[in-house]
Amino acid sequence: MTFPRPSLQSLKVFEACARHGNFTRAAEELSVTTTAVSQRIRDLEQRLGVDLFHRRGPRLSLTEAGRALGEGIREGLAVMQRAVEDCVRAKPRLRVTCTPTFANRLLVPLLQEYHQLEGSDEIVLDVTTEERDGTDFDVAIRSGTGPWLSFEACELLPLEGTPMVSPKLAASLDGDPTSLKAIPLLRDDRWNGWFDMAGASPSGISFTAIEMLTQDSDAIAAMAGNGAALLSPRLFERELQYGTLVAPFPHVLKGPGSYWLLWKKGGLTPHFADWLISYLGTELDRRLA
């Protein structure tokens, strides 16, 4: 004997009607019209060849056939929900590797917001200055100029730099970029480019004896009064607001590198990557508005 096979949507509508005992409340839950619900139930009854409800005005009661179908559908939906949950739990965690300053200043504070989204990935975050092999990560955030031949790549933010100093050292500067030559500079390959864009010669500048590997370390040294650091006003906005660092000049060097988002070439774009690209694009539009 061949049994009818109603659509999953029809069964979903029936389950809502059986649970509420009312077509109107079921329609509200499903965001459709009461007429659409009523028509769907009539079509289902015709397809199955049985009455599913006793109709007494606006109030509904299940027939024996309707009660049996409702119990079966609820059990089936519970099985499907467990299957979905098992599938999500079995999903491997997303391996993200990221440069320290971007991770500490931007990414980590955003992860809680990301994990509130439906479909968000569990993340294992590897914070490092080393460039990991492509087999060691699913998504990478790296700084540089590229090209990134083995990966899909999206430019996130330009690398920015403007001199930042402690309040005490800021008081010794007179607003002329050449006054920076009177204090030591924390080592950075971009200083010549900054002086050029500021219209000043870099000749005569002096550097500290220690080279830091991250902008976070440069910032700590600058706050301690050890010299001027070339830092991103975007990533160190909080220190500028609180006054622990001062940016005495308006000139902000952009580039030559950028922060890039990388993932495996030819594969699906990870949910996390799509979200981060969209989030940063929206925030930049807001800042420029």
Written overview of the protein:
The radius of gyration is 30 Å and the shape is elongated. It has 289 residues and is an alpha/beta fold. Strand 3 (94-98), helix 5 (100-114) and strand 4 (123-127) form a beta-alpha-beta unit. Helix 1 crosses helix 4 and helix 2 crosses helix 3 (34-48). The chain is 42% helix and 18% strand. The protein folds into 2 domains: 8-90, Winged helix-like DNA-binding domain superfamily/Winged helix DNA-binding domain (Arc Repressor Mutant, subunit A); 94-289, 3-Layer(aba) Sandwich (D-Maltodextrin-Binding Protein, domain 2), CATH 3.40.190.290. It has helices at 8-20, 23-30, 34-48, 64-90, 100-114, 167-170, 191-197, 215-223, 237-242, 271-288; strands at residues 53-56, 59-62, 94-98, 123-127, 139-144, 151-164, 229-231, 253-264.
What's the count of strands? 8
So how many helices?
A: 10
Sum up the overall morphology in one term: elongated
Mean pLDDT: 88
What share of the residues does DSSP label as strand, in percent? 15-25%
CATH architecture of the largest domain: 3-Layer(aba) Sandwich
| Proportion in helices | 40-55%
Distance between the termini: 67 Å
Q: Topology of this protein?
A:
Blueprint: H1 8-20, H2 23-30, H3 34-48, E1 53-56, E2 59-62, H4 64-90, E3 94-98, H5 100-114, E4 123-127, E5 139-144, E6 151-164, H6 167-170, H7 191-197, H8 215-223, E7 229-231, H9 237-242, E8 253-264, H10 271-288
Parallel strand pairs: 3-4, 3-5
Antiparallel strand pairs: 1-2, 5-8, 6-7, 6-8
Helix pairs in contact: 1-2, 1-3, 1-4, 2-3
